[in-house]
Amino acid sequence: MSNVLIVAEHGGGAIRKSTFHALAAGQEIARRTGGKVHVALLGKGVSALGADLAAYGVDVHVADAPVLEHPIAEALAPVIADLAKALGASHVGAAATAQGKDLLPRVAARLGAGMATEVLGFGGDGGGVTFRRPMWAGNVLAEVEIATPVKVFTVRTTEFAPAQKAAAPGAVHPVPVTVDASSLRTRHAGFREVKSERPELTEARIVVAGGRGTKGDFKAIEALADALGAAVGASRAAVDAGWVPNDWQVGQTGKVVAPELYVAAGISGAIQHLAGMKGSKVIVAVNKDPDAPIFQIADYGLVADLFQALPALAAKVKAS
Ligand code: FAD
Question: Which Pfam families match (predicted)?
Answer without folding.
Answer: ETF, ETF_alpha
